[in-house]
Amino acid sequence: MKFAVSYSTPYYGVDPDKIVAYAQHAEDCGFESLYLPEHIALYPGAMAGRFELPPSLPYFDPLDCLSFVAAATRRILLGTGVLLLPYHHPVVLAKRLATIDVLSKGRMRLLTVGLGTLPGEARAVGVDFSTRGRRADEAIDVMRLLWAGGEDGVSFAGEFFTFDDLCQFPKPHGVTHLPIHIGGSSRAAARRAGRRGDGYFPGGALDPNERATQMDLARSTAVEAGRSPETLEYTRWGSIDMTVDQVEDLAAQGVTRIVIGATAAEPDQQREELSAFAQRFALLEHLTS
User: Fold this and answer.
1) I need a labelling partner for 81 at 20 to 30 A (CA). Which of 8, 28, 152, 183 fits?
2) Which pTM was predicted?
3) Are 39 and 71 in contact (CB under 8 A)?
4) Dmax over Cα atoms in the chain, in whole Å?
5) Could you tell me which of 168, 157, 175, 205 has the C-alpha nearest to residue 93?
6) Which burial class, exposed, middle or buried, applies to 187 when counting CB atoms under 10 A from its CB (0-12, 13-18, 19+)?
7) Which chain regions cross the lipid bilayer (predicted)?
8) Strand pairing of 154-157 and 162-166?
């Protein structure tokens, strides 16, 4: 089992020194990776499920923030949970991701993408909300094509993106393409993970049966697409106070990574919570073994 931490700027704040201290402490504790969420823009009345999102919530751009964190850390992997893929142009996004991966010496490896749930956010960036699933599928294909392409260039002709003989350098650090995990809490997201993803990171308040159904669907879709379901990573949210038994139960379900976050807003208490979790699961021992 791998253990990651999340950093929520809407909850913890946007002080750059606190972000760096949090990431450095997580790294020192033995956590594998750091995740940041994304919202590009909010508006009065924006609803996430049953909950209204205050429009003043301070969401950092996750990739800019992860690049900042990478400069202040040595080992911790960089992740998004989730990046709203339909709202980014994949040619530009592929360049940004490769740049961060090169500058971090191969740590931009836990990109998790989702579709977004706010129609007003889609309208603000000129995206038809009803097409965002197809747009995301195409964007994944575009990025992988660009990362793998050589000096002769690559071409693409899709519903949303078209180009001829395009070259994009530098390439990601030492790999053909960066892993792309699929986030979401729907069966469509599970199928997307099976068809195109390197992992599945379901969110939402799903009951155990639906979670099992979705992961089975991701694996069966991978088989139908001629891909190996065994290589599909399975990431889930956890809690800072979870027990060994709870982790073992998730492992029995096939979970390969758990993402937790500190509940405290103050840095000293955050460090205490992360340290206690790391000690409970002997993260440093596993890191060096």
Assistant:
1) 28
2) 0.97
3) no
4) 54
5) 168
6) middle
7) none
8) antiparallel
